[in-house]
Amino acid sequence: MRLAVWYRLQNYLAKGRRSFALLAAGLLIVCLQACSDSTSLKFANAADMPIKHLQGQWVLVNYWAIWCKPCRKEIPELNSFNLATENAVVLGIDFDGHESDELKELIKTMAIDFPALESESSLRMLLQTEPSRPSGLPATLVIDYRGESPELITTLLGPQTELSLKAALQAASLTQ
After folding, report:
1. pLDDT of residue 1
2. Buried b vs exposed e over 108-134: b needs ≥16 C-beta within 10 Å?
3. β-strands 40-41, 49-50: how paired?
4. How do residues 121-163 score in pLDDT, each as one tens digit?
5. What are phi and psi of 55, to 5 degrees?
6. What are the phi and psi torsion angles at 31 (to 5°)?
7. Sheet holding 57-64: strands in order across?
8. 61-119 residue pLDDT tens
9. Which pLDDT value is given to residue 174?
10. Secondary structure of the chain in the HEC alphabet?
């Protein structure tokens, strides 16, 4: 069907119906985007990634802030965990909602090596629901995306270590 629409657009252009062809092309683009299941997460320090690339693993979303000393303490542990664990990925999110260049600078200052989401809207896309903001920092959401859709399992409050994250995933696996 997409190919047929494309040929019709070319035909309209050839016959001089440029305005109609442009309108139809715009509608085709909107339709293709709506039909696509490749919704992507936007990161401040990494390339965009289709949500489906996370499927089959645990996703840990860590809320951090520049003013949070325990957050600063746990970042090296999160970096290590992200590199060392095959069936899990760590994603970060700035609690204060900084954007663009300011967010990139904070990520550098905090020495965050794992992907950091641009905003909470990416987290909403991932969870397919409105997550509640954590009541304290640092906070790490444990999301099971080993099935067809992501499921928020628990929220870990306080600084985490590589060992505590592995233990949390082990416990969550036993309850699933």
Report:
1. 45
2. eebebbbbbbbebebbebbbeeebeeb
3. antiparallel
4. 999 999 988 888 999 999 999 999 999 999 999 999 999 999 9
5. -60, 140
6. -65, -45
7. 88-94, 57-64, 139-145, 151-157
8. 999 999 999 999 999 999 999 999 999 999 999 999 999 999 999 999 999 999 999 99
9. 85
10. CHHHHHHHHHHHHHCCCHHHHHHHHHHHHHHHHHHCCCCEECECCCCCEEHHHHCCEEEEEEEECCCCHHHHHHHHHHHHHHHHCCCEEEEEEECCCCCHHHHHHHHHHHCCCCCEECCHHHHHHHHCCCCCCCCCCCEEEEEEECCCCCEEEEEEECCCCHHHHHHHHHHHHHHC
Q: Confirm if 162 and 73 have CB atoms less than 8 A apart.
A: no
Structure tokens at 21: 């062809």
Strand partners, 89: 59
Question: Distances from the Cα of 95 to the Cαs of 118, 119, 120, 142, in angstroms?
Answer: 11, 9, 9, 17
Its pTM stands at 0.78
What per-residue confidence (pLDDT) applies to 13?
A: 57
Which two tokens mark 132?
């509640």
Query: Can you tell me the distance from the alpha carbon of 112 to that of 29, in angstroms, rounded to the nearest whole number?
Result: 36
The answer to whether 72 and 57 are in contact (CB under 8 A) is no
Does pLDDT of 29 surpass 70?
no
